[in-house]
Amino acid sequence: MTRYGNEKEKMRSLLDPGPVPEIVEMRLREAYAALPERRPARPARPRLRVLRTALAAAALCVALPVTVLAATGELLPMIEGAIAFFRTDAATTLDSIQNTFEAYNAAVALEKTDAGVTFTVDNISVDDNFINLFGRMQATGLRAKLQEANTAGDGNAMFDGQMPDRWAFAYNDMPRPVVRVGDAVYGLDNSLNDSLNFYFQDDDTVCYARRILVNDTLPDSFAMQILPSYATRPAADGAGAEKYQTLLGTEGDWTLECGVDITSTRGAVKNAEPQVLTLGESKLDLKKFSVSPLGAVAVVDEHFTGGIGEGDVVQKDGYTSLEQYAVRDSAGNWMYWMRPSGWTVGEESLYEFVKPADGVDSLTFVPVLYSGTAQAQEALAPLEQGAKLEVTNLSGYTVESFVLDGRRLELTLAPYGPQAYGMVGLEIEPCGADGSPAYDEEQARTCIVDSYTDHATGNVVYTMDFYHDEPLLSSAVQLRYTKLADIALDEANAVTVPLA
Question: 45, 82 in Cβ contact below 8 A?
Fold first, then answer.
């Protein structure tokens, strides 16, 4: 028995809706066969076995007023197979690790319709560290509804309707599901880290991906509930709080359920023992550092005291955050946690790291010391390939490539050196030859800045998109950024932790 209870018995009671209707099976087969190949040069790998229910796709967006479970009372293993979400020309931040997902996933074909909105989960990819969901949301006239909301003129529409549908949806309506396993709920660190992981399939349908970090350890098999949103409000009777779900601003119930078996991923998992590391005068309460097929995750208990509305948030008894340390693997390579990351759930902070190379068997945590004399200051670097943004005296980014047109700047930045606090929150401003911004205040009002980390390479992709009628960036020849205080590495107090 675990805190999840007797999982097999629980799942038998939860996951037995009866046989999947033949009409659903037929539509699934037809829809999957009709999917376009995104990369015809690389044929999709065959499945290791035939699933009882194939992958749901676009054709299933017709009204089906029932929840379709992946199989009758079955635990779905993570096996090799194609994922329809990636079979499109749309670009997302997860493309670089598509092969990873397609090596370990299950086609679940779950969907539920309520209040005129259909919520679907087509595939899941799960291991010790991540719960990844790939699915769709469908409603008649969905794109038109988003456009109407974005131009409502009620003071809530961002940028007076100039924001494209993509960003309006990302900020306002994109489903960010959470997952419940027993009493645990994963995905409460709802941030915009999935803001680019969706695309419009047609005027009625949006396809989404959700990547959720797991802050503890999952059992080998378990029942999983998927909720499209997770919110609370005061109960109607004034006693306590009640939970509710919304999609497209409408309340309803879109809870989906399935059984999962992640045994096939266990052999490739390496973990550090949970421990409190003493690093000089400070302590790091490392609850988890795990490398698995789907990536790497660290969880740190920062021992916060106080909270929002309770005065300052501080850390007690000398405990500190992971951001005060650089992490080096046994091959001598610096490891980088991703933007966005470091989100806090309770007292725990969750970090996703770029997965280290195979064969890494230990990690070294090196305290980063900050100079008291060299303070943060603005710096300029040329806008050219190979230019260095020296964030500290030991670390920063190299401009691998850039795209510049009248309304968009996209930078691909390769990190180097130990990751210092503040590197992840880098802010960049394109400037002219005289160092002045390449846009004015009015134009800046219609700018959206975003950045994400490539899950495979660790490179940071930094974008600035302007939605203004006039060309803007043609004068940009430099990049302004913040150079942090000088740092030093306290190797004498570094601690090496085995991965096994």
Answer: yes
CA gap 34, 30 in Å, rounded: 6
Q: Does residue 276 form part of some domain?
A: yes
Neighbours of 43 (CB within 10 A): 9
Q: Provide φ and ψ at 322, rounded to 5°.
A: -65, -20
Confidence of residue 373 (pLDDT cuts 50, 70, 90): low
pLDDT exceeds cutoff 90 at 238: no
Question: DSSP character for 94?
Answer: T
Cα end-to-end span (Å), the chain = 25
The verdict on 115 and 215 lying in the same domain is: yes
Torsion (CA) 90, 96, 97, 101 in degrees, nearest 10:
20
- Residue 371: both structure tokens together: 């100079």
- CB neighbourhood size of 90 (10 A): 17
Residue-range definition of the domain harbouring residue 298: 269-370+489-498
Find the mean pLDDT for residues 441-448.
82
How confident is the model at residue 53, as a pLDDT?
30
Highest mean pLDDT among 42-46, 275-279, 368-372: 275-279
Q: What pLDDT digit, counting tens, does each position of 93-117 carry? A: 899 999 999 999 999 999 999 999 9
CA distance 335 to 412: 18
**282 & 335 share domain:** yes
Handedness of CA 144, 145, 150, 155 (dihedral sign): positive
Is residue 157 over pLDDT 50?
no
Predicted confidence at residue 72, as pLDDT, reads: 46
> Based on the domain organization, do 222 and 289 belong to the same domain?
no
Instruction: Name residue 20's beta-bridge partners.
Output: none
